[in-house]
Amino acid sequence: MRQLPSGVFASTYLQDAALIRTGKQWLALGVLLAAVALVPIVLGPRYANIGNNMFILAVVVTGLQLTLGYAGQVNLAQAAFMGVGAFTAASLANHWALPFIVILPAAGLAAALFGLLFGLAAVRIKGFYMALTTITAQFVFHFAVINLPASWFGAANGLKVPPAQLFGLSFSSDVGLYYLNGVVAAGMIAFALGIARSRFGRAFVAVRDDDVAAGMVGINVVQIKALAFMVGTFYAGVGGALWAYYIRFVGAEQFTLFNSIWMIAMLIVGGMGSIVGGLFGVVVIAGLQELVTSLGPQLAELAPELGGQIVFASMNVLLGLLIALFLILEPKGLMHRWQLIKFSLRIWPFPH
Amino acid sequence: MADLLNQVANGTLLGLLYALIALGFAVVYRASKVFNMAQGEFVVLGGFIVWWLASDLELPLIAVVPLALIGAGIVGFAIERTFFARMVGESAFSMVMVTIALLILIRGVILVAWGPEIRPFPIVFPLQPLVVGDVLVPRSLLYGGAISIATCLGLSWFFSRTRLGLALTAVSQDHQVALSLGISVRHAMMFAWVLGSVISAVGAIIYLSGKSLNFLASDIGFAALPVALLAGLESVAGLLIGGVLVGIAQALAQQYLDPVVGANVASLVPSLFILLVLFFRPTGLFGWKTIERV
């Protein structure tokens, strides 16, 4: 459903299938990538940290976008799947000292297998009953991490993670990790854009809009639902592994139901059913979180009796209102608004 | 044997408390087809209203309880007017997302207003447990059980026998059809949210009586979730049976499984229970068979 400016015509099939169609789009992408690459150099390591957080969230939320935004399968435990990836990565790195390049997909696969378990429930159950069963994943994850032998996942103490090693380089500084996470996130997002345009992405959308009709046109609905869950949770697992290498420590309390809810909030604010929309949401919400955190000391002066809790509390109030307002006023998210603005600029000065 | 009896009795009563909290889910779902994810926060909010009236304003208990219920009703009314009245006709999905927003919002408001400290909750029911033979049960749960049986049966009768209740049932099946039959969807939703909020406050009083209160008490909402799913979201009287089943299963797991496994399996039992039930019976035990299957 991409809208191109008029006058752009494809003369070969290759051009018609290309993701980036015009010179201006190439230019915009180039400027964006250059700007992102320059952030730690120009703004310093503090912003590299924020960037790391956003890159990792971008991977996880893109996965959720595929499961929820494209395939319509509600998953309220994306953070738990992220946790599965993080703990798998930590455990593999500690016990077998596997290289980063092997661990990253392995963590994704572990999360995808765990996700399949709950994806299979989607075969039987639909809608909100389904959403609620995914909450079970959250409880199972937390329980398993705490109660499995400490030598596996560190139980209540969590696990330390060695720095990522790739091509003989060791990624232990925030700036180094910024580029590593950035490259992985860019690759994963490009892959997701590919999935969304592929036969599977179309099948996801068909199943979301009407699974009976999708079945009638020959889509294997069961397979597609399970696949949607696996792909989404694979992304969560990869994001979790990046997180493990970024924080260098994993603990069960880093992956709560509340985190999953924040991720859904990012989708709502950014826009459901659009990969780029999800990224908008990540930037806006993670940016707001940063803003509130950095305003923390001033806020604490306003309400001294709350102490450090004021940041968490006011963030909740702000975010809760934001989601509710978006759902009431702009249910299609920022992405939709952005498209409208782009369209009206293109045809300016005419209204239609 | 005494252990077994004790566990079954306490499990049953705890299950009845779960049923009462789950009733909050069911009432809202029955009238607006919205699954209220913020149920746990409603319970905590009810708890804080009681605490505020009893400890801050130092009102006598006899005045606190009715005032708290009225206060909870007003909160439910305000929330419905502010958020859900604007969303009649929107998809159930966006409405549930609003309840998720509410979950975050109410937690934030509670933290801003009352802070994260743990506070003693007023003792509404006498503390000393009731002893019958070898069986020992806390009074709050005993009275709570009676209240939840009465409420569930009463509401069950209300939803299936009275004019207003049937109107709510019609709204839960289809907003459009209900509107065309002259039923006010807005009134039905308002009623449901007020009722849901009041029931949550009752649940808070029973659950928290004589215990401590802070914002983390909202976990009871998710603990009651399996009960609501097990019974099927539409069934009000079925909640009692679902609650008792889950309560007993949890109590027995605590008694007999935990020592064997050496971990807190009991906390996981309700969730696993519901996963199994949903695999074989996606509508829950007593739900309407309207869930489409693939």
Summarize the structure.
The complex is a heterodimer of chains A (352) and B (294). Chain A is an all-alpha fold.
Q: Notable features of this structure?
A:
heterodimer, A: 352 residues, mainly alpha, two-stranded antiparallel ribbon, 16 helices, B: 294 residues, ABC transporter involved in vitamin B12 uptake, BtuC
Characterization of this structure:
The complex is a heterodimer of chains A (352) and B (294). Chain A has helices at residues 13-17, 23-43, 45-70, 78-95, 100-124, 127-147, 150-153, 174-197, 199-209, 211-216, 221-247, 257-270, 275-294, 296-302, 309-329, 333-346; strands at 159-160, 164-166, 169-171, 249-250. The mean pLDDT of chain A is 81. Chain A is mainly α. Helices cover 75% and strands 3% of the residues of chain A. Chain A has a two-stranded antiparallel sheet with strand order 1-4. Chain A has a two-stranded antiparallel ribbon with strand order 2-3. Chain A has 16 helices and four strands. In chain A, a hairpin with a 2-residue loop joins strand 2 and strand 3 (169-171). Chain A has two domains: 22-255, no CATH class; 256-352, no CATH class. The two termini of chain A are 18 Å apart. Chain B has 294 residues and is mainly α. Chain B has eleven helices and four strands; from the N terminus they run H-H-H-H-E-E-E-H-H-H-H-E-H-H-H. In chain B, a hairpin with a 2-residue loop joins strand 2 (130-132) and strand 3. A two-stranded antiparallel ribbon of chain B has the order 1-4. A two-stranded antiparallel ribbon of chain B has the order 2-3. Chain B is globular, with a radius of gyration of 19 Å. Helix content of chain B is 70%, strand content 3%. Chain B has a single domain, classed as ABC transporter involved in vitamin B12 uptake, BtuC, CATH 1.10.3470. Chains A and B meet through helix 5, helix 6, helix 10, helix 11 and helix 12 of A and helix 4, helix 9 and helix 11 of B.
